[in-house]
């Protein structure tokens, strides 16, 4: 059963906020910041992980590790009945950092990170061969000013 934000209480959001600031924060530090016991902090965090609400990962700065070609790709699918197939195929590509079905002019929105512009061209050429991909439109990101997780305070 999938949980939604209404099943989370203020303490859950506080734990999540702590980890958004520092994903390596210890149970002791979380407990001290939130004025709860270490056991409570541990229990809450473990439940959040088990329910798939949070996963602890190392987030890298793409530019600092060598990704020099970062782009938004709009994908047009024809016929529309192939959208799910196309999305599944594109989602398997390691260059893809974001993929969503959209309304409006195009069908799928894809953000990709490639090492070089040549790698980006190769990626575009390869997804263009997927059955159902009618057209792509690529916008290069010259400079990323903000790359962040959602602000949990917006849910309050």
CATH topology name of the largest domain, in short, is: Alpha-Beta Plaits
Largest sheet: 4 strands, antiparallel
Pairing-aware structural class of the strands and helices? alpha+beta
Classified by CATH, the class of the largest domain is Alpha Beta
Low-confidence parts lasting 5 or more residues at pLDDT below 50? 1-5
Secondary structure tally: strands:
4
Overall shape: elongated
Domain HTH asnC-type: 8-68
GO cellular component, one term: cytosol
Protein name: Lrp/AsnC family transcriptional regulator
GO molecular function, one term: sequence-specific DNA binding
Topology summary:
Blueprint: H1 10-21, H2 27-34, H3 38-50, H4 62-65, E1 69-77, H5 83-91, E2 96-101, E3 108-114, H6 117-127, E4 133-141
Antiparallel strand pairs: 1-3, 1-4, 2-3
Domain HTH asnC-type: 8-68
GO molecular function: sequence-specific DNA binding
Protein name: Lrp/AsnC family transcriptional regulator
Explained architecture:
The chain is 37% helix and 20% strand. Strands 2-3-1-4 form a 4-stranded antiparallel β-sheet. The chain has 6 helices and 4 strands. A hairpin with a 6-residue loop joins β2 (96-101) and β3. It has 2 domains: 8-50, Arc Repressor Mutant, subunit A, CATH 1.10.10; 62-141, Lrp/AsnC effector binding domain/regulation of amino acid metabolism (RAM) domain (Alpha-Beta Plaits), CATH 3.30.70.920. The radius of gyration is 20 Å and the shape is elongated. It has 156 residues and is an alpha+beta fold.
